[in-house]
Design brief:
3-stranded antiparallel beta sheet; 14 helices; 42% helix; 17% strand; single chain; globular; 13 strands; alpha+beta
Length: 423
């Protein structure tokens, strides 16, 4: 603690209480004063963090709320604005929300409740299917006093509370936060069109998603049904967050980001049949390692499983394994504008047009061809085509909105098909 913050006479009220409590827990406290009068302007407190310590600035407007919290028991979950209250066993994080918020906050499960300061707030208690899983709550505005204490650090109006999580260390709490939010936010994105993300310490992003207007209304959010591959979810969130900047859109990078989600699962789905047959052969109790014929069959299966397929073919197999034809047809037929755009070969040159009524080629194969054609035009001209690479500010790139929505739709379906039930 600095010399000026030991017990300066001008420290009083909530400022003094906060400084004393922090000092008793060996937290560094610095008193910030006004240049003109020397009066106390704020306290800067170093709280334990998953990255060492993190500074919390407590202004006069925050002091009462901060003093009402058990901040001595907090661990800051860097690099996010979240905190883990070790004594009460909950994680609280501000959340950035983008898109059609009324679609989520107008559902039957939303309660109007009175916040800690007497003002009306909205709350969604997300039903948990098992007592072994943590409780989840989304709230709009500052329902909990801890949210008010974090308010100056978050610039967000929505908060997520994960309760019933006693006995964790900081790393475990951070891992739980990222795992739960990755699944929860993904499924809310799919079902409600509201894109949520955990704000990091130094970002200020906004986004809109007109695609959400086509989603059904009236469904309350639920506890995530599935747990998703962590690496694949990182790729998805990266692509989803790229559109969050109101200053500079990056459609080409966003498209490739969603493509990477699909690409991540290609080895599993493109060799699925060969791997299944090989696995069944190895399980056979009659397998005789001294039988050259039997071992030769295994060798053939191994060669088949390791056979390198072209990326376009891998993409077709992956999409066919994860998405029903009817689902793709419903997506494309949902609006006349969709059908007109994807059937117009002049909108974006040298890419496959889509026709759900074409029975000569499966729709999954048509979509795979279009996605891969665009991928090649973004990266480089490929496979003998005369198409030029798409440029960031070119006229064709400005037409990419529907194709980005399509590749995002496919990426979501592949993630869902690859998800595992929560245990």
């Amino acid at each position: 603690m600095s010399a000026s913050a030991t017990e300066p006479p001008e420290l009083a009220g909530h400022f003094k209480e906060i400084a004393d409590r922090a000092t008793n827990r060996s937290m560094q406290v610095v008193v910030k004063r006004r240049y003109d009068s020397g009066a106390v302007d704020a306290l800067e407190i170093q709280l334990p963090s998953t990255e060492g310590t993190r500074e919390f600035r407590v202004d006069a407007d925050d002091a009462e709320a901060f003093a009402s919290c058990r901040f001595e028991d907090w661990i800051a979950l860097s690099p996010y604005h979240a905190i883990y209250d070790t004594s009460q066993g909950f994680i609280l994080s501000p959340v950035r929300e983008y898109g059609y918020s009324t679609r989520l906050w107008g559902t039957p499960g939303v309660e109007k409740v009175v916040g800690f300061d007497g003002k009306e707030c909205q709350r969604i208690d997300i039903a948990t299917p098992s007592r072994n899983l943590p409780g989840l709550e989304l709230s709009k505005r500052q329902l909990h006093v801890e949210a008010a204490a974090l308010g100056a650090h978050s610039a967000a109006g929505v908060y997520l509370k994960i309760s019933g999580v006693q006995g964790l260390n900081g790393s475990e709490a951070l891992q739980l936060l990222t795992r739960v939010t990755a699944s929860l936010f993904f499924e809310i994105d799919v079902t409600h069109g509201s894109h949520f993300r955990l704000p990091r310490l130094d970002d200020y992003e906004t986004v809109s998603d007109a695609d959400a207007a086509l989603l059904p209304e009236g469904r309350a959010p639920q506890f995530p049904r599935l747990s998703y591959d962590e690496n694949a979810m990182t790729l998805y969130q990266y692509a989803r967050n790229l559109n969050a900047s109101s200053l500079q859109k990056m459609p080409l990078v966003e498209y490739l980001g969603f493509y990477q989600v699909i690409e991540y699962f290609m080895p599993a789905y493109s060799n699925a049949d060969s791997l299944r047959r090989l696995r069944n052969a190895l399980k056979d109790p009659n397998l005789d390692p001294d039988n050259d014929v039997a071992v030769g069959r295994l060798m053939s299966l191994l060669i088949d499983a390791n056979q390198k397929r072209a990326e376009r073919e891998q993409l077709k197999l992956t999409i066919a394994a994860c998405i029903e034809e009817q689902s793709l047809a419903a997506y494309l037929n949902r609006s006349k504008e969709n059908i007109k755009f994807f059937g117009d070969k002049t909108k974006i040159l040298d890419v496959k047009t889509l026709n759900p009524a074409n029975r000569s080629q499966p729709l999954t194969a048509q979509v795979a061809d279009r996605i891969y054609d665009l991928r090649c035009r973004i990266v480089h001209s490929k496979e003998g085509g005369d198409g030029k690479p798409l440029l960031p500010f070119g006229a064709e790139t400005k037409q990419l909105g529907r194709d980005i929505a399509l590749v995002r739709f496919v990426a979501r379906k592949v993630l869902i098909a690859s998800g595992k039930m929560w245990r």
